[in-house]
Amino acid sequence: MTTYVILCRVSPEAFADAKEFKQLAAKVSEKIKSECPKVVWKDSFALMGRFDVIDIIESDDLEEVEKAAMIIRAYGHSTTETLVATPWKDFLDML
């Protein structure tokens, strides 16, 4: 499976109270689980910098990865940047 990193920046208008973010995150997660079954969520991390969240996913279906990113944008009120992540050892072996 191919690994992808989705970097997310949440819109300031996405929620009024920080506690509402939990509900927003759950809604987005459920939508992706139901509409993108070929996307395997590996982990998510909160960030302190240019991006708010980094999601690590795996999939062999690029269309579902793209759909998951669009769900994050639409339902999560976020901008995203999706990157292919090659394991370091595989990258070095390729050289």
How many strands in all? 4
Q: Work out the count of structural domains.
A: 1
Order of helical and strand elements: EHEEHEH
Uncertain residue ranges: none
Q: What's the N-to-C terminus distance?
A: 20 Å
Task: Summarize the main sheet.
Answer: 4 strands, antiparallel
Radius of gyration: 14 Å
Which strand order does the major sheet show? 2-3-1-4
Could you describe the 3D structure shown?
There is one protein chain. With 95 residues, this protein is an alpha+beta fold. The protein has a single domain (2-94), classed as Dimeric alpha+beta barrel (Alpha-Beta Plaits, 2-Layer Sandwich). Helix content is 40%, strand content 33%. The protein contains 3 helices and 4 strands. It has helices at 20-35, 62-76, 88-94; strands at 2-10, 40-46, 53-59, 78-85. A 4-stranded antiparallel β-sheet has the order 2-3-1-4, with helices on one face. A hairpin with a 6-residue loop joins β2 (40-46) and β3. It is globular, with a radius of gyration of 14 Å. The mean pLDDT is 94.
Question: Can you give keywords for this protein?
Answer:
alpha+beta; globular; 40% helix; Alpha-Beta Plaits; 4 strands; 95 residues; 3 helices; 33% strand; 4-stranded antiparallel beta sheet
